[in-house]
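User: Second chain of the day. Same drill as before.
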Amino acid sequence: MSEKFNVYEFYSQIEQENILLSYKGPVTDFLLTEFSNDIRTQLREERKAGKKVFSIFMELAQNVLYYSREMDGFDGGDKVGILAVIELDTCYKVMTGNMIPAESVPQLVAKCKKINSLDRDALRAYKRELRDSPPHSGSKGAGIGLVQVALTANNVLDAHMEQTDKDHYMFVLTVTVPKQ
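Assistant: Same format as last time:
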C-alpha cells in the first residue's frame, strides 16, 4: 500500500460506482441493525428488489458475524468482515467477505456448487432436507441460509476463495438481485 491514501479518490469511486453501503471492520448486531435501517431507507422506492436486497444482506452479514475467523484488534470479541451493496443499472449486488479456516473450504465450495446446480423446486427440497437434518458441527443454525439466499435472489451464488495464508482463506460471496 502506498504511504498516502487518497480519500477523495476513494470518495469519487464510491459515488461513481453507486456504492450504497461499504464497510470493513468488526461486525456487531448493533451495526447490522443500523445498516439494515440504512438499506431499507435507500431502497424504499424499489419495494420488491429492496426487500430481496435487505433479506439477502441480513443473511450474508449474519454469516460474517457468526463464522468469520478474523477478530477485531480492540477487544478481540467481534468478528471482522467486509459488507457492500452496489446499485447497477439493472441490478443490485450484495457482497460479503470474511476469513474462514482452510479446512472449511472444500465443504463450502461443494455446498455453493450444489446450490448453484439446483433449480427452484430442488432448492426448496434441499432446504427442507437441511432443516430436518441435525446441524453440522460448528454451525449456528440449520445450514439453510445460503439456500434461502439463492431462493430469494432467484440467482446463483458467486463464491470466490482467496488463500491468505496456509490456514485461512478470504471467502467472498456476491449475489445479484435483478431490479425487475
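The mean pLDDT is 92.

User: Great, on to the next one.
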